[in-house]
Design a protein that fits this description.
Blueprint lengths: L6 E6 L11 H4 L5 E5 L7 H14 L2 E6 L16 H21 L4 E6 L1 H9 L1 H14 L5 E3 L4 H8 L4 E6 L23 H14 L1 E3 L5 E3 L4 E3 L7 H14 L9
Parallel strand pairs: 1-2, 1-9, 2-3, 3-4, 5-6, 6-9
Antiparallel strand pairs: 7-8
Helix pairs in contact: 2-3, 3-5, 4-5, 5-6, 7-8
Length: 254
Amino acid sequence: MTWVPIDLNADLGEGFGRWTLTDDEQLLSVVTSANVACGFHAGDAATMRRVCELAAARGVRIGAQVSYRDLAGFGRRAMDVPAAELAAEVAYQIGALEVFARAAGSRVSYVKPHGALYNRVVRDAEQAAAVVDGVLLADRTLPVLGLPGSRLHEAAAAAGLPVVAEAFGDRAYRADGSLLPRGQEGAVVTDPDEVVERAVSMARFGIVTAHCGSSVTVRARSLCLHGDTPGAVGLARRVRAQLEASGVRVEAFA
């Protein structure tokens, strides 16, 4: 039996100056797409350049992980940013990463919001439209990676941008297919065996068990593997190995 190929993406370059968070080099040996922090929630010029060079050398697709301007809060704090300002900041982040991607012989292949912005544009039509306006300012061909059924995907599709549905093996879902907020107990799945099982279930059958115990349909082309969790590299390798052992083809979407 053949299933739709699955892309594996991870948030990379999430350090700043002398401080590092993700094992970028090791994760780039597992994933097919790299969501590179563009300096607003994490990352700096040197880190962006290094990750782009590593990704390009391994044939990994480079994505701009855009965020609210929130270094202190790692982009996970709710913020109210005027639409025009947010659009400009999204374009700014994409443009900054594009310089380093091009210098490495690659290019920015897609855009993915981070943290509070990611969650906000699931339901907030105005902020979603602002993100899309920012993508259009930077490159009118870039795919937008995000949660299926989100306002972000609605706005991107209406603007003619490609959309790519994303799922999470290590995040708890609510019955409506949205993610359980990080502030709630059980929002992050920490059992490695459970993460692997959920990833394979979503890739093969498009189904995951919600936090309440019900089955939720989650049909995605890309699966996120968070790089800032303990044991992230080993877990990512287990997920990829089990996907391939289950007959799932792992390849980039862009």
